[in-house]
Each structure stands twice: as structure tokens, then as C-alpha cells.
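Customer escalation, tier 2.

The customer says the design service returned an amino acid string that "doesn't look like it belongs to this structure." They asked us to rerun it and document both sides in this ticket. The original C-alpha cells are below, unchanged.
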């Protein structure tokens, strides 16, 4: 936990909407998360997706969740952050050990900082969850009355 604020970089693949992947260097420190594309001549000419470097301030980070772990050699995680009053999601894949280390590191950083973006995101997520459960409860209640 103490080393979670020290800078560390990881080589992972960023997953785009159409399931294209781009190799990136994910740099994580206590202040920010940096995503820098790893330039590969063959891959960059193959597709039109040109990944730009992204820097996300740790005050804007909202969540970091393990999305799926298929095997020890493959896992995916989702990074959620606030951008212009919208919550954006970025998906990354790599081997499970690397992904688990990244998720732990980012979550330690999130827990040690009290950002308003994270608090608002968690409150909104909780409201959505309670709305969903209250709706299904009302549905069961109506069917039980008939």
C-alpha cells in the first residue's frame, strides 16, 4: 500500500469499441494515470485508430474494476474517470497477474484520496442500484397480489 503512490509503468493493450487493441504503456502514480501508445510500425498502418497519449489526474479517477478473468494468461479491467461532466470508461487487457497488480494499485490510490468525482460516481451508482432493486421489488409485489 505504501508503494502504491510510487510511479510504475505496465505494458498492456487498450481495447477500443470495435474490439481493436492498441499496445500502450500505462503509467500509474499517486498523482495521475498516463496512457502512452507504444508505436509499432506494422500495427499503426493496419488500422485507422491512432491512439493519442492520455493523462488522467487522480482527482478525476472514479473506479477501477476487474471486468473479466478468463485464464491466468488473460484478464480485462475497466478504468472509470470523469471527463467534462461525463464518466468515461477505458478497458485494458493483459495477463491476469499484471491486471490484478494494476487494479490493486489504482484502488489503493482511490481509497487513500477523497475525491469528489469518486464520491459522486459511487453515489450515482448506488442510486441506480437502489432504483433497479426497488423496481424489481414492485414488479414482484404486483404479481404476488394478482
Amino acid at each position: 500500500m505504501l508503494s502504491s503512490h510510487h510511479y510504475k509503468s505496465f505494458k498492456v493493450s487498450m481495447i477500443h469499441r470495435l474490439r481493436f487493441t492498441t499496445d500502450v504503456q500505462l503509467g500509474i502514480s499517486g498523482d495521475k494515470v498516463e496512457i502512452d501508445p507504444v508505436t509499432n510500425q506494422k500495427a499503426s498502418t493496419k488500422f485507422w485508430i491512432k491512439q493519442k497519449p492520455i493523462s488522467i489526474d487522480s482527482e478525476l479517477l472514479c473506479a477501477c474494476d476487474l471486468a473479466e478473468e478468463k485464464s491466468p494468461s488473460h484478464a480485462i479491467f475497466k478504468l472509470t474517470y470523469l471527463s467534462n461532466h461525463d464518466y468515461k470508461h477505458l478497458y485494458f487487457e493483459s495477463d491476469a497477474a499484471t491486471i490484478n497488480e494494476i487494479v490493486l494499485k489504482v484502488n489503493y490510490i482511490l481509497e487513500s484520496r477523497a475525491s469528489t468525482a469518486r464520491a459522486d460516481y459511487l453515489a450515482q451508482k448506488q442510486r441506480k442500484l437502489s432504483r433497479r432493486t426497488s423496481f424489481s421489488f414492485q414488479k414482484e409485489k404486483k404479481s404476488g397480489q394478482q
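Tier 2 assessment: The sequence is consistent with the input. Helices lie at 41-46, 96-112, 116-145. The chain has a mean pLDDT of 82. Sent an explanation to the customer and offered a walkthrough call.
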